[in-house]
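User: two proteins, same treatment. go.

Assistant:
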Amino acid sequence: MGRGPSAMPPEPGWFAVAESSWVGAGRAVPVRCFGLDLVMWRTSEGQLALMSDRCPHRGASLSRGTVDAGCLACPLHGFRFDPAGSCVAIDAGTVPPLLRTRSLPVREAYGMVFAWLHADTPTAELPWFDDLEGLAHHSRRIRWDVHWSRVVARQLDRIPGPRQLRSDACSVRTWSVDGGPEHYVEWRAPNLLISASGVRSRVLLVVVPVDRHCTELIVRTYARASVWSAVVLWLASWWHERSIGRDRLLVEGQTGEGSRGNGDVLVASDAAVAAFRRIREARQLNTGS
């Protein structure tokens, strides 16, 4: 599987890595996560597959190939791979048993693609927020040149003034003492964040670890469906992108990974960030996370 110099060990959990709408029937789309070069593709029947974006024959990029008859064909020689990663046809002769590429567990829900990249056995439950059920949304994509843990930490900082905190083995929620529990930010392992400003506004931030130095953000703005919801969502999405973007230069100025033992000196107001780092570290150490 392709790994660049900025690769890092995959962490356990169902990572949201893309929106389902990005991968139409009969299409192959490259995606990079934890420094792994992957390809998502969908058969004409709608089955989604995720595998290494490298042909085991001579290293061509499979995401540049074509999808036909339930297989992904390599662009170089036309070798055909099924969704399980097995080569089922070559240009001549018998397919060697070792001619296969790694296929990864992938699931779809809530209009998102979730991938399990860790060597551990996948768990059954996908992360999500009940607050978003039944709401319409508008999406935008942003890239930041910083480790993904720094992005999560910054979002947990966005509640102004005195804050309350609640955490468990897979989530951290912080909210404003002055604004009440309706104004909150919550991280849910491994890479989802939700922020709420009152009972109407919800923003979902999907923090995709592209590699050690780059993060892709999928920003979904949610609102109640109405005749004006498309306009309202577009305007709210534009405003939230600008709001988040103001943090970009600040966060990109931080160095290294945001983890315990990296030299950061946390203070009392960093309680949510400290909880995030502690939970993430525990998940990395424990199998079955």
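Protein 2:
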Amino acid sequence: MLDLMQVRRILLPLGPGSRVADRAIPAAVAIAKFFECGIEILQCVQDPYEVPLQQRDLEPVKRRIRRALPGVDLRVSVIVEPHAPAGIAAAAQHQLPVLATGATVFELDRYVGSVAESVVRLSGQPAVIVGPAADTEHAFTVDRVAVPLDGSTLAESAIPLAVEWANELDVPLHLLSVVPQTPTDADGPAPVDVDYLRETAASVEGAIQPVTWHMMSSDNTAAALAEAAEDALLVLHTHGRTGLARIAVGSVATDVIRVARRAVVLARPELAEATGGDGAKHAAGAES
């Protein structure tokens, strides 16, 4: 996985004529400015004859970026790759991808999710995602880093990446959990409780200060997370369970990205098939 201390270039994938993809430009510029690194614009096309046309069409984007970030090391790559997520994933191996998405759900090889999630899963690298509801000019203007937890080992595996981002940005770490209002199936996994969040916060205080936490009650997990982390950089994994996996279509990551007002860091779990822990029982709402 890419070390934030070693970020040398931002990968900015843009689609031919895509206004959705263009919404990632301000965030890419802001992140490149923060890390003092270069930017590579990447565009995937279907046929070789499109390459010179798209290189020409990207000139206004290059001028826009240079105006916003004078002196930036800016590169442009137009490649022939019919399956854009695969092309982006290949280029993302040594760069930090920043891309915008409409958070449209689709099915690929029996996996239901968004194009952004497909890129993350194929590359194995985290990516910064700007969703359709994000304030594009301030998508990277955050006052904390937030990570949703549901008591599972899988969700907890996002904590080290969240800590890394919080330390790099010099902002607090905020732990979030959503408890369903509707009673859950007795045979299903138990929701977490206050003690779990408190103990988890205490366990990471040696790596980051300060650490805060907040427990909410809602049947709309994505909306609750987005509202609680309105000014935060959310760090999500592409899978989850209990409160992180109650949405019927697609993963919670897609649904959070769809409504988040700030950028979201999306990562693939190191152990994609990891099973969650038991968590804690008897949820109760509270806030530190």
